[in-house]
Amino acid sequence: MAIISPFRAWRYNPERVPVQQAVTQPYDKITPAMQDRYYEASPYNLVRIILGKRLPQDNDSENVYTRSAASFQNWRQTRILRQDSEPSLYLYSQTFTIPGSQTLAERRSFIGLGRIEEYSAQVVFRHEQTLAKPKADRLDLLRATRAHFGQIFMLYSGAGKVDALLDSAASQYKDKNKNADIEVTDEDAVIHRVWKISDADILASVREQMKDRKLIIADGHHRYETALTYRDQRRATAETGSGIPAPYDWVMMTFVDMDRPGLVILPTHRLVFGLPTFSATQFQTEARKFFNVEEVDAGIDATGATAILQQAGHAGTALLAITRAQAFLLHSPKAIATPLLGSLSLRQQSLDVVQLHKCLLEGILQISEEAVRNQDNVSYCREAAEVLAQVQSGKVQVAFLMNPARMEQVRDIALAGEVLPQKSTDFYPKLLSGLTIYALE
Q1: Are 188 and 429 spatial neighbours (Cβ–Cβ below 8 Å)?
Q2: How far, in Å, are 313, 318, 364, 365, 428 from residue 350 at the CA level?
Q3: Which pLDDT score, from 0 to 100, does residue 240 have?
Q4: Going by fewer Cβ within 10 Å, which terminus of the chain is more open, N or C?
């Protein structure tokens, strides 16, 4: 069962620092240019804690993690951050334009604590593999600061019942002519609003509604597994427990009902480069072993490519392979249930991204799984227009455009205990870090 809890969040004090200047995108989405911009925005921007700059003179006693811990302690002592007076859940609304369209959408969720569970308990489910290096980095930060600054993005199936409870509580703000507790607009023009919900009856009802839910990690696999490792380490050194969960038994989560509108998954396209030899003609010939192949206009633009993919995708797998001189639509996969994919379930074999990786990247282009993981010959891009520009520049030998994974595919694969290839999902928009902070001590 999923056990959640309200908590007394630490939040930026608007009397000391504008929240707009302090919050950030998740740490793994922060580019060096963004890091610089965040540093310039405010001396209290959260980037100084979650992704501080490393210095040449860093050593065991003075480094990026010790500076993070010192900043966090100082900001609490000087009331840059202040703690809410009562345990609360935090209704979280994100209003945004769906990329590549003019459609305005809203995703509603809530922030709370979720009890950390082993995957074997079948309460929390993953959908992707993790890497050791990012987890080691996040573990060092957690050990130093003993706090969680960003939320794990969790999906659950709730038929809108929890949203209705929290919306009812938030409506009281409107009756009192009170706006959201937090409202900021990020660099992607996404409007983030947060309302603090402290009514004991509402909190109890939400906890009751959530207790039978299964949770799927949408984003934050590395941080979740880091929290799990940290919990185990703290338990190993703790005195005999009282049976009451300790602060390190919980991690901060944002819970999104996947039955509700506003849940958007974007495609992440693949760009191939640096192959010693590549022939578009030979690739087309080899691809016919795995797909039906149709040539399309080599001068196709991003809008046209997206339209072709969407139309062809209604019938199943659809991929667009683009080179400087040619473009091919690949559909109707032929390798399902063959030895090439035989070790994977039919659920996984039906995914466009699995067909792409196994048949094209590994099968035809001979790019190993390790090379893909290390991005030796493959890079990733969200924007179709940028993909086409990279191909025409000559920097990319061949690019693959694809449709996004569907939510039901992600759900079914995760609940079956299986995983997708890396960069299979891009949930949009991201959850801002620093809206709420969970301090263990």
Answers
A1: yes
A2: 12, 11, 19, 21, 23
A3: 65
A4: C
